[in-house]
Design a protein that fits this description.
The protein is α+β, with helices and mostly antiparallel strands. It has one domain: Alpha-Beta Plaits (2-Layer Sandwich), CATH 3.30.70. The chain has 2 helices and 4 strands, in the order E-H-E-E-H-E. Strands 2-3-1-4 form a 4-stranded antiparallel beta sheet, with helices on one face. It is globular and about 35 Å long.
Length: 86
Amino acid sequence: MSRHRLGPHTPAHYEIRIERHLDEHWSTWFDGLTLVRENDGTTTLHGVVADQAELHGLLAKVRDIGATLISVTSAEAPDQVGDGPA
């Protein structure tokens, strides 16, 4: 994960990269995250995640479908950028 200091209830944009391609219908299973099938055979799921509890739920879904997790990265949600201490 990235080094951003997000609280447990702070919305953030996440990118979850997994091994193998997923069909678009999996977007519903992953709470509406956008799925991008990469040229290297991986899939990147991205979108705003409400909090750490939702993130852990998404990661459990990755586990449940038997996909290999490659990476998880986060950034502050667009409406949060610049609102915190410098």
